[in-house]
Amino acid sequence: MDRDAFLARHGAGWLQAWTDIGAQAPVGLLDQLCTRYAEPQRGYHTLQHLDECLHLLAAHRGLAERPAEVALALWFHDAVYDVHAGDNEARSADWARDALITAGAPAGTAGRVHALVMATRHGQPGAQAPQDPDTRLLLDVDLAILGAPPARYAEYERQIRAEYAHVPPEVFEPRRRQLMAGFLARQPLYLTAGIRAEREPQARRNLAAAVAG
Questions:
Q1: What share of the chain is helix, strand, coil (3-state, %, to 5)?
Q2: Nearest residue to 142 via CA among 113, 116, 175, 108
Q3: Which InterPro entries does the annotation name (predicted)?
């Protein structure tokens, strides 16, 4: 997605989120984040994904207890993205927390945003479904692509494959099917009723096809 078009759609929301948490958006931080989401190694975790997340959050904002914190967590949730690393979420969460504290946000706010970003590690073994509405909404928004229309879902799969182009097909494909099977086994997949109604039927069709290969 073109950066100028993205900023035209979401620049005001960025500033409003900081105002809503009682802080001022740090100078230059928005440009830094946009630059990160435009890095060449990214195929899916780009401004397109962030745009889709923020758009869906806006449609379901009423489900959040602290919508500004959910929004800021989304802005940061893929800020660090290296397919060779296993600590992307931790580094993104730390960046978010540090930025909020430096900007004068309350420590509790910074801690909650940090926790929200960490929650996007999806599928940790033994993890229980979160009970707080903000985490549930954030996770559903991040996974909404699984319930996208077929053409967009197919594009998503191509984008993920591009990010892992260095992985041989005989390694990538079974691991990918295993991951998709894990999502398909979730009952329910989406934790918020509104997104479940909108996305779950299509998500199950997409995932079943992906697992079948």
A1: 70, 0, 30
A2: 116
A3: HD_phosphohydro
Dihedral in degrees, nearest 10, Cα atoms 152, 127, 177, 82: 70
Structure tokens at 94: 């730390």
The pair phi, psi for residue 83, each rounded to 5°, is -65, -15
DSSP string, 91-157: HHHHHHHHHHHHTT--HHHHHHHHHHHHHTT---TTPPPP-SHHHHHHHHHHTGGGGS-HHHHHHHH
DSSP secondary structure string, 162-186?
A: HHTTTS-HHHHHHHHHHHHHHHHT-
Residue 72 CA, distance from chain mean position: 11
CA dihedral 129, 122, 138, 201 (to 10 degrees): -80
| Confidence (pTM) | 0.96
Reported confidence tier of residue 123, pLDDT bands at 50, 70, 90:
low
- Tokens representing 106 are 């309350």
Q: Read off the DSSP letter of residue 141.
A: H
91-116 per-position pLDDT tens digit: 999 999 999 999 999 999 999 999 99
How far, in Å, CA of 163 to CA of 43, rounded?
Answer: 5
